[in-house]
Amino acid sequence: MEKELIKEIPCLPLDKLMSIFKPDKDDVYRHGLLIGRRSAVGGEHADISFVHPFSVNAFILICCDRGEVSISTNSEEFDLKPGTLYINFPGQIMRASRVDNCAVQVAVIDLNLIRDMSLDVKPMAQKLLALKYAQCMQLEPEAFKETECLIDSIADEIRNNEEDALSNDILRCLISALFFKVGRAVDKNTGETKKLDQEAFSKNAGYFKEFMLLLGANYKKERSVGFYAEQMHLSPKYFTTLIKKASGQTAADWINHYVILEAKNLLKYSTMNVQEIAYSLNFPNQSFFGKYFKHHTGMTPSQYKRL
User: How far apart (Å, rounded) are the C-alpha atoms in residues 63 and 88?
Assistant: First the structure.
């Protein structure tokens, strides 16, 4: 039987991904977050649901509970077996190329959700590059169980349907814990096996780490890509290319994430008014800060402060 061809590889928003995943009654979906379990018996693809290639602007975590499944990511193939954790990065093209009597748990976490919930990715930023070279990891049984339990806890909190501020805080903590758990697995996997590709220690990785250090020290005063490029003695165009290749996000994305996260924290937890926050982040005036904040969050600083 000939393979069914598709005209183009779609980049899907998360709500459209629901139709591909053939929604199950036990699935959990909330704007920006999808959690479910899928299985396939006798080598059939029917219930795995990602046979055709696609990409999505989200992290996709797949825990293999039973059997085997091969995931093709861009041009690389990964074989998942029981106890394997696989991570697909935002924008990466993926498909299931081989399925053999398998059962998997899937969690899809949209980048916009990470930004909207003010998840602090700064501690994880240094691990992003290493994670790209440890996308498929065989975990210790206890670590694998803990990872699945965290995903189940996120699903349970959504099922509780408690639409209050505490629910958002609980989800923020659980999702953060999940990413840190993955970070620990990366450290252990790359440290023990020493199979991290040499490219991770290449020029690109060094530039990315240097950028993270510069950004952490200067983001409250400097939002210009040109400033960081100049500090690293690179042209803005070449600098942008290096950071995008190393981390999957542009330098501007990283700068904006740091600034918006700081602004949200100050608006929510400090006694500073909007004007004081604008000046503390080196905006020329409150109006300019307000436009910047609304462009990146969809609401004004005052509206966010009242949440």
Answer: 12
Whether the predicted pLDDT of 194 surpasses 60: no
Helix, strand or coil, per DSSP, at residue 29: strand
Return the pLDDT at 8.
46
Backbone angles phi, psi at 220, to 5 degrees: -75, -15
Which of 138, 168, 193 is the C-terminal boundary of a domain? Answer: 193
Residues 4, 77: Cα–Cα separation, whole Å: 20
Supply 22's token pair. 């053939």
Residue with tokens 């501690």: 123
Position 131 confidence tier, pLDDT thresholds 50, 70, 90: low
Question: Would you say how long the chain is, in residues?
Answer: 307
Cβ contact 49:21 at 8 Å: yes
Could you give the 3-state DSSP secondary structure of residue 102?
strand
**Average pLDDT, integer, range 43-47:** 48
State whether 159 and 111 are in the same domain.
Answer: yes
pLDDT the model gives residue 280 = 93
**Nearest alpha carbon to residue 53 among 94, 15, 16, 17:** 94
* Residue 6 lies inside a defined structural domain of this protein: no
Domain that holds residue 261: 202-305
Position 145 scores a pLDDT of 96
Q: Which long-range contacts (CB under 8 A, 24 or more apart) does 4-11 make?
A: 4/52, 6/52, 6/53, 9/53, 9/54, 9/55, 9/93, 10/54, 10/55, 11/54, 11/55, 11/56, 11/57, 11/91
pLDDT band of 144, cuts 50, 70, 90? very high
User: Do 206 and 293 share a domain, yes or no?
Assistant: yes
- The secondary structure of the chain in percent helix, strand, coil, rounded to multiples of 5, reads 50, 20, 30
Cα–Cα distance measured from residue 181 to residue 148, given in angstroms and rounded to the nearest whole number: 11
| CA–CA separation, 126 and 210 (whole Å) | 10
